[in-house]
Known about the structure:
The complex is a heterodimer of chains A (215) and B (225). With 215 residues, chain A is mainly α.
Amino acid sequence: MINGLYRPGASPIHRLRAGTKLLLLAITCTIVFFMEGWALAVVPVITVALYATARFDAQTLYRQLRPALPFILLIAMFQVFAASWVEAVETVLRFSGLILLAALLSLTTSPAALSDAMLSAMRPFKRFGLPAEQIALAMTLAIRFIPVISQAGEDVREAQRARGGRNRFFRSAGPTIIRTLKLADELAEALEARGLGLGDAEAPRRPTSAFEPRR
Amino acid sequence: MKLTFTDATLVRNGKTVLHPLDLELTERRIGLIGANGSGKSTLARMAGGLIRPSEGAVTVAGYDTARDDKAVRRITGFVFQNPDSQIVYPIVEEDLAFGLKERGFAKAEHRKRIGNVLDRLGITDLRERLAHELSGGERQLVALAGVLVTEPELLILDEPTTLLDLRHSRRIANHIAALPQTVIFVTHHLDLLVDFDRVIVLDDGRIIADGDPANAIAAYKRAMI
């Protein structure tokens, strides 16, 4: 299962509006970022409670955190030597909380709803030249292509294993990047073909269905 | 629906990919076959306005693909070989709405059309599924549905069955056969073209045969030996 990918559900958190969730996430993350000392102990408690409310188990929670754990622990170790063990614990709690809360948003919000919410939030800035539609689409595509690119990487590693090679991350990175770039080219063409940027300048062409018999 | 190629040529990096081409396509089912690199996908992309000719002109229903590209894209649907590169949103229903959203259709119209297309293709159960969890055949059906919801007058399919098993190939072909639109079908699966109105064979950027399926396929087989 891919981390941070939407999982449809009917929990209260799933049902919250995407814009509300986005706003709450921004506020919560800002507070967590500036929290210090023992107050940070409340972050894992709230996070676990939110995951339980969204009906996700401990394994799902751990999967969201797992890829970032080595980096968090590395920073924490650095803090132990550079500052104190208290600050190291604070770092672990702060970063884990931020990652888990952000993951909860993408687990409980469909990318299209998230994209629409972001578009609404960015709309006022369009007059200053902000390409709101493009940013929202880019975000949606980034989420959509996590499993596709992950699968491309797995295919490359499998091919290397089949040819007797050892499973080395850096050796598979090159072919995976090449595949991803090819996919990006194909995607650009497909977006154009599917009508990206056609706009609504023209009225719907005709109201009849394509499935009606030819006359 | 009428497509015309008038002296249409494509040159890329000094290499002629398509030699000057004069064609008039008025049939409802047109097949394009040829060896890999023969120019059949390029010809299909030119017909859909995705590639503009270096010289000459291509028109679709009277619209020039170079001058009126938006009008051409509005009436044309394109299905590619790899469904992964054309499914934009992770959830099927949201993905099907993409083309409608870009064309400015109201949400009520989205629901109506999406329901209609899913029903016709027999994939209503996929409506709320995640695209990456579907099989290759299901993903290709979703890609086809994503194009059909926009109700294009011209449907271009570039090897949509190449990655599919026999059952899904046949299923896609049956759906295509039932469509009222003009269809240009690029394929290596020659048996899918037997009921077509016209089949064009390309080799090295040139048309080497053009006619009814039996004669065109025979010419293709002779050329490949």
